[in-house]
Amino acid sequence: MNFLDRTRQFTPLVWVIIFGTFLTRTTFFMVWPFLAIILYEKFALSPARIGLILSMSGASGTLLGFWIGHLSDRIGRKRIMLVGTAINMLGFSVMAVADTVPLYTTAVILVGMARAFLEAPGKALISDALPERSVRELAFHLRYFMLNVGAAIGPLAGLKLGLTAQQHTFWITASTYLLLGFALTWAFRRFVSTNKTTLVVERFSDTVRILRSDKAFLALIIANLFIMLTYSQIEATLVQYIQLLHFADAKVLYTWLITTNAVTIVVCQFPVLRLIERFELHVRVIMGVTLFGVAFSAFAVIPGDATWLWIANMVVLSVGETILFPTLNIQIDRMAPSHLKGSYFGAAALAGFGFSLGPLVGGLLLGYFQSGVIWWLFGATQVGVILLYLKAVRVARVETSVGHI
Questions:
Q1: Which of 64, 96, 126, 221 has the lowest CB atom count within 10 Å?
Q2: Taking 90 as the threshold, does the pLDDT of residue 247 lie above it?
Q3: Given this model, what pLDDT does residue 145 score?
Q4: What is the domain range of residue 332?
Q5: To the nearest whole percent, how much of the chain has pLDDT over 90?
Q6: Does residue 405 lie within any of the structural domains?
Q7: What is the number of structural domains in the chain?
Q8: What CATH number is attached to the domain comprising 384?
Q9: 250 in a domain, yes or no?
Q10: pTM for this one?
Q11: How far is CA 99 from CA 47, 49, 213, 262, 321, in A?
């Protein structure tokens, strides 16, 4: 079945999730990557304190993610996702008017919470709507593709429109979540689940028991936690490190770096997919993690004024991301029982503790070392990640007698 034949099987709700991701991510990336700069310039906060505030966003969503995923299995995706759009609207609206650190912190926590209401239920909904594996996996790739199209357009649009690191831009982001809420309401009226499974785990404790017994999945979560700890440095620590190097215009360089990240993924995702699709999933993951380790280590030695080296290294990192993150979603989908898709995607979000702690860890390390040593540390972490993945593969072979996870 070719690309077009598979996309014709997408339901209106799947298209809303895919294009809603594009719209909200575009406006999100106009401002969120520059939040560290806003907090520094407006309140003169230290790197560690900025890292703590940004960490609260990830932590709030991660703490809720597992339970929200389970709840979406139990009461349905619609109510959960619509609540998520409303919380996002509130959070970004507060950011648009906040003039104190506590208000900013409150808004950051709300946005983090809202992510839990949309991420795991949205991915589980793709599985609900698309029973055929090849069609479902293409939808996961397209969703990630559109996320990165938005990430490519957002920073440049913000820069060209003079919105970069401007507080009022948060109103634009809030309005896109209002549009997403209307679109989801329309699409849910036309959605009929193809998931005919009648087995339902009613209690949260039952879900926890099932997940605790899946040792390969638990090893996967731990490995993912360290991946996200490292990856989160792009959103907070990297821009502060560039400022530390006294680059002529840190905002412009950082804008080009995150745009390079997104454009590389947009250009390379499907060609790279064709090149690696013959490999087992765990092999693809190890390839992506290896590129992460190389790229993060290289940040330590690139001179502050070598713009093209910064951009080239971001391309290497982005190719690793292109391989890694869509593969992880497919991997989780394959491991999850059909009646526990939301719970498994929600449990996988526990790896978000790495992402939420990342800005704090990065800020503390940057404040202590004041040098590129931190990038050697994060690069070396990926060796441990590969060992954890290999352990997950071995456990999966023992538990399921299948040659790959």
A1: 96
A2: no
A3: 87
A4: 3-400
A5: 18
A6: no
A7: 1
A8: 1.20.1250.20
A9: yes
A10: 0.77
A11: 19, 17, 47, 31, 36
